[in-house]
Amino acid sequence: MAAGSMKLIENRGDHLFVEYDGLIGPAELMGLMEEVARVCSDKNCKKILADLRNAEGPLNILDRFNLGVVAADMFRGVNQIAIVFRKDETNLFAETVAVNRGLPSKITHDMDEATRWLGLE
User: Fold this and answer.
1) Are 82 and 111 in contact (CB under 8 A)?
2) What is the total count of domains within the chain?
3) Cβ-count burial of 104 within 10 angstroms (0-12 exposed, 13-18 middle, 19+ buried)?
4) Which of 4, 44, 64, 96 is in the most buried spot, having the most CB atoms within 10 Å?
5) How many Cβ atoms sit within 10 Å of the Cβ of residue 87?
6) Is 69 a member of any domain?
7) In terms of DSSP H, where are the helices of 1-121?
8) Which helix (H) or strand (E) holds 84?
C-alpha cells in the first residue's frame, strides 16, 4: 500500500463498508478484494459498499475484465456489491462482466445512487 494511504473495512450490520484511497492497480485491488472476501465470509455479509473515489491510478480494459471475472467468483454468496469510483474512471465494463457471471454489481460515481441500489437508505 502506498505511503499515507488509508484502508477501512467495517461491518456496519446491514452491510460491509470499504473505503480505500491507495494505489488501485490490479495487484492492489486483488489484495483488497481478498481481504474483503475474508471479512465477508467471517461476518456473513451479504451487501458490500466500497468507496474508491480517492484511490489512485487508472485501470485499463483488460484489468477491468479480469477484476470483474475474479470478483464474481470471489464474492459468490454476496447478494449485492456497489462500488463508488471516480467519475472520470467510471464505466460499466467491469460491472457488466461481474453481472454476466452472476454477481449483482453496481459501479457508479454517486454515493447516494450506490446506497439506494443497496437498499441502505
Assistant:
1) no
2) 1
3) middle
4) 64
5) 10
6) yes
7) 26-43, 61-74, 93-100, 111-118
8) strand 80-84
We report the CATH number of the domain holding residue 50 as 3.30.750
Contact (CB, 8 A) for 57 and 24 = yes
Give a yes or no: residue 114 inside a domain.
no
DSSP per position, 48-83? EEEE-TT-BS---HHHHHHHHHHHHHHTTT-SEEEE
Is the CB of residue 88 less than 8 Å from the CB of residue 112? no
Strands 80-84 and 47-51: parallel
User: Edge-to-edge, what's the strand order for the sheet holding 47-51?
Assistant: 7-11, 16-20, 47-51, 80-84, 105-108
Domain range for 38 is 10-107
Listed residue (29, 26, 27) closest to 18, CA to CA: 29
